[in-house]
Design brief:
Strands 2, 4, 5, 6, 9, 10 and 11 form a 7-stranded mixed beta sheet that branches. With about 110 residues, the chain is an all-beta fold. It contains no helices and 11 strands. The protein starts with a strand and ends with a strand.
């Protein structure tokens, strides 16, 4: 079955950077569009970014455009999210997603 395991979260100061990873298994990763979503405390799920199967097309929410970069390594079945210039409002649990499936998430906390 679909397995998605996120990692790379942590505590970072405003303006800092983190790179999230998502190890995928149980499906044909290389032919699937993948997405990052997040959930801030007390709020619903928010779409962050999407990448097509070969990585040639990427899409971003306005709130992260110019600061976050989504990428993938199909040889390693891994999805990435490079997050720069982090703000307190980026604090959330970040999930990678394939269709209706999500991993357990990784916590990102931006605070001084």
């Amino acid at each position: 079955q679909v397995q998605l395991v996120e990692s790379g979260g942590g505590l970072v100061q405003p303006g800092g950077s983190l790179r999230l990873s998502c190890a995928a298994s149980g499906f044909a990763f290389s032919i699937n569009t993948m997405t990052w979503v997040r959930q801030a405390p007390g709020k619903g799920l928010e779409w962050v970014s999407t990448i097509n199967s070969d990585g040639s097309r990427t899409y971003y929410a306005d709130s992260v455009k110019g600061r976050f970069t989504i990428s993938r390594d199909n040889g390693k079945n891994t999805l990435y999210l490079q997050m720069n210039s982090l703000k307190s409002e980026d604090t959330a649990v970040y999930y990678c997603s394939k269709g209706g499936s999500r991993g357990q998430g990784t916590q990102v906390t931006v605070s001084s």
